[in-house]
Design goal:
Structural class: alpha+beta
Radius of gyration: 23 Å
Low-confidence stretches: 23-29, 108-112
Order of helices and strands: HEEEEHHEHHEHH
Largest sheet: 6 strands, antiparallel
Oligomer: single chain
Mean pLDDT: 80
Number of strands: 6
């Protein structure tokens, strides 16, 4: 009996070790596959930019300092770096998109692992005119606890439940965006992962993750679709 118990223990130990090796190999293979896909996305973006007359730069420094204080950038800073910085025109509007990277001290890596940066991919489209600072975000627990800025309530239960609006000019939001953009936000699935931000003559959206040609097409289309829904007179009255 003891002999069979010893054999069983050895079999289980072997199975455990084999399983661990299989897991490590699978995770490593997935990581290599993901890295290869991301590198191909960057190479394809550079090719598409050249074909469309856009300007693509692998990285730049200092050109996004003006966005400090806005999401998802730090409150202050200088000579910030942007990766895969791409500029040009899309549907007749000037745009820029890029990756902003930073080290998140709250998410430490395991011992022996290389700490990976958090990557925020940002898309910015120029608007027809200046607008008051406005954010349209999905509610988050941290915002509920720490963001004490007054929120706009439109009186539409579905919108007020699923979105947070912070603006320097509530009248602008209600008249310029409330009647035309809000119905679109409620009907388009992209809004679940695409926060909006207006400042000056630029409209922003962003997500956490790397930049890809598909995302460029989708997010720029999304921003342009929103701007198409804003009445022209709203920009003059802002």
């Amino acid at each position: 009996m003891e002999q069979w118990a010893g054999i069983l223990v050895l079999v289980l130990l072997f199975a455990f070790i084999a399983g661990m090796f299989t897991l490590v190999f699978t995770v490593s293979a997935r990581g290599r596959k993901k890295d290869a896909r991301v590198r191909e996305d960057y190479a394809q973006l550079a090719r598409i930019a050249a074909e469309r007359g856009w300007e693509y730069e692998p990285h730049v420094q200092g050109r996004i300092d003006q966005y400090c204080g806005l999401r998802p950038f730090p409150g202050r800073g200088s000579n910030l770096r942007a990766w895969h910085y791409t500029t040009g025109e899309f549907r007749g509007r000037s745009f820029k998109c890029f990756e902003y990277r930073y080290m998140n001290v709250a998410s430490g890596a395991d011992v022996g692992e290389r700490k990976q940066p958090t990557i925020e991919t940002v898309f910015i489209v120029t608007t027809p005119g200046p607008a008051p600072f406005t954010q349209v975000l999905r509610p988050r627990l941290l915002d509920t606890l720490f963001d004490r800025r007054p929120k706009v309530q439109l009186g539409l239960p579905e919108f007020d439940r699923d979105f947070r609006v912070v603006t320097d000019d509530e009248e602008f939001f209600r008249h310029a965006l409330g009647r035309t953009v809000v119905p679109y936000l409620l009907s388009d699935l992209q809004t679940e992962k695409s926060p909006l931000q207006l400042r000056g003559d630029e409209l922003f959206t962003w997500y956490r993750g790397t930049l890809s040609p598909q995302a460029v097409e989708e997010k720029l289309t999304y921003l342009c679709d929103i701007l198409d829904r804003v009445p022209e007179e709203a920009w003059a009255a802002a």
